[in-house]
Task: inverse folding
C-alpha cells in the first residue's frame, strides 16, 4: 500500500513469515528535503502479526507516528509500539 501523509510518501510491504501463519511488514517513508529525496525504512516486530491486514495497518500507523514525532533517529529498535487496531483513513 502507498499513501501520502503530511508531504511524505509511506509505502508498506507485508510478507508472510516462512513456515508460520504470522505476517511482518516493512515501512518505507520518503520525503523531499530541499533538492534531496530522503528515504527511511523500518521492519515490524520479529514475532509478527496474525494477518496481512494487521501487519499493513501497523506499518501505516508506524510511519505516521514516526513523521508526527519529528522523524527521530531510530537506528536501534523502536522504543514504542503502535496499536494494530489503528484504522487507515
Result:
Amino acid at each position: 500500500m502507498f499513501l501520502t501523509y503530511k508531504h511524505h510518501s509511506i509505502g508498506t510491504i507485508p510478507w508472510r513469515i516462512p513456515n508460520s501463519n504470522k505476517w511482518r511488514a516493512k515501512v518505507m517513508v520518503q520525503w523531499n528535503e530541499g533538492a534531496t529525496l530522503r528515504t527511511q525504512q523500518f521492519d515490524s516486530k520479529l514475532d509478527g502479526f496474525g494477518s496481512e491486514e494487521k501487519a499493513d495497518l501497523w506499518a501505516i500507523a508506524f510511519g505516521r507516528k514516526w513523521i508526527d514525532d519529528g522523524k527521530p533517529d531510530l537506528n536501534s529498535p523502536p522504543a514504542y509500539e503502535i496499536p494494530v487496531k489503528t484504522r487507515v483513513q
Summary: The chain has a mean pLDDT of 87.
